[in-house]
């Protein structure tokens, strides 16, 4: 979102695995009591929750737009975003994996991604053009690409989801999706750096 | 028949906290609607029927059929209602307060509810699921209690009811069902009490729905 909107920013890395998880430090807890990333400090406020942050950016820096002008399409963009953000990600993230336990967590993570993608593939039949909602990049696309990356990390077979695959490929051609990629960040480990 | 003459239809389960959020919004906005009950426990879970899968491929409630579209995801529904029927407002006019309202809503909707809902409980397994559900609610409420120190007035964001409040009350109801001790969360408790005095939060309550079981009916 920051890249698409052309907003320059500094990064404070929070390593979720090192030192028992740096998100649990007293210092970071003061930044976000929920002990999660991302958090954005901007215009004198501290915001957590990715969709709250993205919609604040949208409302304060409206160009280029990340939510369709048409209210029904806008609702669909939010619906797809929420499906991923509430319906898939929390059922395969670090917290979930830790709570599930090592024996079963990979299976469940794969299952939950597959279930969510199966639903999403059906929904996209009705909404997608070049991207999730017609031919304009929206908040839904910002949620899709990172979730596909996770699916690949968890070795979920993507063959049943041709629309998701096509859209993901089209989005990864855009500069904002490349410059923000996990393998091109200040805190990307050397062995993964693109 | 024009879609304007057809009442919206809400697919709902009386005890679904996600559906309750939307029921509150519809009540606050004064929108008359019909309910289609989807029993999440009976028949192996009616959300898994072929018929309902066509309504929502994600096989979850709530779903709202309105103005010729079918919308799932409670916050997407609520914000569509907000944008098409702006009065009374459910999101603050001030953009920073609006962001805080969304932040609190998302904390509950993505950070607590999915870690204690039916899907989670089934996947965790009977032995450990109650412990984890209680832990996840407590963790989320601990964070929320801190955040509310900076945002709350009579309600979550100052003195006007917002989307955050629509998310709070159903989650407190769940906390009580899971026997989470609420003593460490006095702000959450106070706000919940104030909200439950409002008609929209009462008429939408799980114990007053068409599909509420007789023994629970208020």
Give your account of this protein's structure.
Chain A: It comes from Chelonoidis abingdonii. Chain A: Belongs to the GST superfamily. Zeta family. Chain A: InterPro entries: Glutathione-S-Trfase_C-like, Glutathione-S-Trfase_C_sf, Glutathione_S-Trfase, Glutathione_S-Trfase_N, GST_C, GST_Zeta, GST_Zeta_C, Thioredoxin-like_sf. Chain A: Pfam families: GST_C_3 (PF14497), GST_N_3 (PF13417). Chain A: Keywords: Phenylalanine catabolism, Tyrosine catabolism. 2 copies of one chain form a homodimer. With 194 residues, chain A is mainly α. Chain A has 2 domains: 2-63, Glutaredoxin (3-Layer(aba) Sandwich); 71-178, Glutathione S-transferase Yfyf (Class Pi), Chain A, domain 2, CATH 1.20.1050. In chain A, 49% of the residues lie in helices and 4% in strands. Chain A contains 8 helices and 2 strands. Chain A has helices at residues 26-31, 50-60, 71-87, 94-100, 105-127, 139-153, 162-172, 175-179; strands at residues 39-42, 45-48. In chain A, strands 1-2 form a two-stranded antiparallel ribbon. In chain A, a hairpin with a 2-residue loop joins strand 1 (39-42) and strand 2 (45-48). In chain A, helix 4 packs across helix 5 (105-127). The first copy, chain A, is globular, with a radius of gyration of 17 Å. The mean pLDDT of chain A is 97. At the A-B interface, strand 2, helix 2, helix 3, helix 4 and helix 5 of A face strand 4, helix 3, helix 4, helix 5 and helix 6 of B.
Q: What composes the largest sheet of chain A?
A: 2 strands, antiparallel
Provide the CATH top-level class of the largest domain in chain A.
Mainly Alpha
Residue windows where pLDDT falls under 50 for at least 5 positions of chain A: none
Distance between the termini of chain A: 21 Å
Helix content of chain A: 40-55%
In round numbers, the mean pLDDT of chain A is 97
For the record, the CATH architecture of the largest domain in chain A stands as: Up-down Bundle
Number of domains of chain A: 2
């Amino acid at each position: 979102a920051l890249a698409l909107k052309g907003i320059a920013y500094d990064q404070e890395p929070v390593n979720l695995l090192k030192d028992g998880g740096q998100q649990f430090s007293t210092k970071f807890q003061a930044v976000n009591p929920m002990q999660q990333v991302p958090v954005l400090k901007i215009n004198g406020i501290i915001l957590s929750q990715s969709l709250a942050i993205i919609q604040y950016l949208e409302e304060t820096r409206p160009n280029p737009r990340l939510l369709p002008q048409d209210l029904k399409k806008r609702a669909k963009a939010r619906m797809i975003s929420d499906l991923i953000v509430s319906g898939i990600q929390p059922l395969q993230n670090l917290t979930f994996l830790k709570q599930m336990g090592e024996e079963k967590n990979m299976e469940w993570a794969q299952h939950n991604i597959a279930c969510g993608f199966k639903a999403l593939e059906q929904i996209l039949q009705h909404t997608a053009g070049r991207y999730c909602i017609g031919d304009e990049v929206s908040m839904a696309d910002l949620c899709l690409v990172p979730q596909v990356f996770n699916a690949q990390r968890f070795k979920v077979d993507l063959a049943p989801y041709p629309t998701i695959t096509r859209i993901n490929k089209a989005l990864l051609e855009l500069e904002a999706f490349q410059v923000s990629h996990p393998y091109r960040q200040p805190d990307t480990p050397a062995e993964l750096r693109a």
